[in-house]
Amino acid sequence: MVITLIDGPNAGKKINVITAEMSYGPETLTVGFGLSDYNQPAPASIPEAFQGTNKARVHALSRCHTWKSGTCNFNTAFSQSRMSMSSLYAPFANAEGWVEGASSMLRENPAARKQVAVMRRGVIEAQHTDPCNAFTTCTQCVNQSTGGFKCGWCMGATIMYNDTGDSGLHCGGFVEGQPLPFVCNKDFRTEDCVGYSCNYTQSQPQCMLSDDGTYSSQTDCETTCKTAQFAKCNQTTQQCSDCQQGDPGCQFTKDECQQSCAIQHSKCNYTTHQCASCSPASDPNCTQSTGECGYDCAHDTHGICNPLTGTCASCDPTKGQPGCVAQCSATCSKTLNFQCDNTTHQCVPGQGNQTLQDCANTCTQHNVTTYGCDWSNATSPQCVAGKGTQNLSDCAQNCHAVQYAKCDPVTGQCLSCQPGTDPSCIYTADYCLASCQKSNLLGVWRGIQINRGFKVAEYDFTFYPDGKVAFSSTYNASAKYEAIFSESGKSAEGRPVTFVMTLVPSGGPLPLQPQAVVGGLFTVQDGEQGITKFMNLAIGTTAAAPASSFDDGMGKLEWVLISCKGSTTSQGCDFTPAKIPE
Fold first, then answer.
1. pTM above the 0.85 mark?
2. Which of 184, 336, 411, 421 could form a disulfide with 188 if both were Cys (CB 3.0 to 4.6 A apart)?
């Protein structure tokens, strides 16, 4: 890709760009852009761009998955960017209109020219704020008036706005008596839609006159109204070859084939939950791109249920193992019946028709004293004869004051603690032992907020080994947040995390309250270029409403964050300047 600057002191200069997929997350796809310096060759790779060779630089950009349009929408980022430009144009816009006012301002203000040049580089493929853009067919568009604009349809081409370029849209608005704020390189219609459309229902597509035409002339129509050329991918050479629709393996158009044939494929190792490169030519289970595999493999839910323990063991769904099902944990439970062995006085699983509790209540030796725990004094509970069904040893094992512990994220070990005096001491020792593990959250992370209603800004997070996290944004760099974090709680996917907010700035950009305990979830996975790793983080805004899934987090607080992978400063990745102090 080549970006040509069209205004400002560097007008006419070119920036050569390479792109590469970096991370495939639950809501977004993140792509790395390696940018050259002005009029320099594009860097050979994203790793080379990280080195800064010839003043190259790297930008990581995220976009919503198309199938997540119901939860993920970045349009507000573009509208807010245009609003910031509008404030620059305001002194001139009233007198001369938006475009001419901007031109006048740019001629008289070199500093503003620089801001606009940077803005144009940053808002690639921005959608223009034009109320007529909402109309998607010619008959809906022409003769419409909305928001002070009259609408017209660009037949045979797309609207090219004077300030943001190609919109990819056909319906545009204008004010009568004023110059058009865009260009239509074909036929701009304001009264009727008579033109030509391609009829693909026939064996040989044919251009026909229509009251809701797509093209203004038959010649324009016939340039594209043709039988689609199909092609299939040679997975060994990763090249497309022409084929006849209906032939084995011939199911994509040539354009579709060329877009997907060279994609790197990987398949999941269901034991390690890591992806390994593969070739669809030799492996029938090699069906996913590397990005798709990375996310699906890390979130695999297949398992074989052990009905005795109610837990699932990992399994490989491609090997036809009996009982290997998706969403195993959602359905697996202890379902065995029990029967008393009158010799040993033990409940035997897999026999009889009693539940374990019913069996335990009756399967005891006569004249044997049983015990139960008296919890009336929670700080000093006692085993009481005749109160329960346990022997004294079993009762004493659990009849004691509750022990609390907190997780050390560096060692993955639980440390005894006292609730009330330690704000991070909020879980029992048993819960800590079941959930504590070495954290992959630690370090400096940079990224963007993606939940609905986000404010355009870059966020910096620093997770410390003492269990504290500090974060702030470029929206208000002085508005610093601090919390105690623990990898605990409940979540439908990823790993759970809990923030206990210890510092919340007054008037900050996030709807959080001091001392709030907010739950959420996260995932961490290595980036595809081998230099960075990515975190998807979602949290609630109150204790009563944690983020239970990434879709749920899009209505609360959610970020896509990037960090250097391990010790990669030798590869040019160094985020330490963004470290937020405790």
1. no
2. 184
